[in-house]
Every structure is written in structure tokens, then in C-alpha cells.
């Protein structure tokens, strides 16, 4: 996958650290005020709660995700994405390596 570059943004230097450092991200604020997080997910299975709707784009590595209430996992390789409704939750699992992602928060 080619490099994704965001120009004229603000980045929060303080990391968002979850699950004892197994998921780490930084917040990026775009010129229009919209927010994204860019991060890494180390091997393991994690549950995240959402407030706003999110689009999760996997930019390197691989993972699988399961939406709230679903029993099946969906695999996601680099270059794929999935949406998560607001006021919901989802499970994400990385079996090996590191998954890199961009999470876009939707209005």
C-alpha cells in the first residue's frame, strides 16, 4: 500500500494507550476540524466501545473484526476497511505481527 500523507494537520503528541500498551494511537486533527487516530495493534483480542461512527482502515498487517452482536469474525488485510456504528462496540484481533490502522471518526 502506498504511503498515506495528511497535510496541514495537528497531531496530539501524547499517545492514546490501551490494553497495557498493546494498542497505541495518536490523534490527528485535519484542517476542517475532523479527527482521525493513527495507530498500532499488537497481537491479542480487544473490545472497543464507540461513541461516534468510525471507519477503520487497515494500512499494514492484518486483523479480524467482529461487530457487536455478531458471532462471525471478518478478516481484514492491508488496504481493507470496515465501518462501526456509533454508540456500539466491536472486537478486533491480531493473530501475529502488528496491524497498523487509521480510524476516521464520522459526524
Descriptive account of the structure:
Helix content is about 0%, strand content about 55%. It is mainly beta. The protein has a single domain (about 10-105), classed as Jelly Rolls (Sandwich). The strands form 2 sheets. Strands 1, 2, 3, 4, 6, 9 and 11 form a 7-stranded antiparallel beta sheet that branches. A 4-stranded antiparallel beta sheet has the order 5-10-7-8, with no helix packed on it. The chain is globular.
Count of DSSP H/I helices? 0
**Count of β-strands:** 11
CATH class, anyone?
Mainly Beta
* Largest sheet, strands/sense/barrel: 7 strands, antiparallel
Low-pLDDT stretches:
none
- Structural class given helices, strands, pairing? mainly beta
**Outline type:** globular
Measured on Cα atoms, how large is the radius of gyration?
A: 13 Å
User: Please, what is the average pLDDT?
Assistant: 96
SSE string, helices as H and strands as E? EEEEEEEEEEE
* Distance, first to last CA: 27 Å
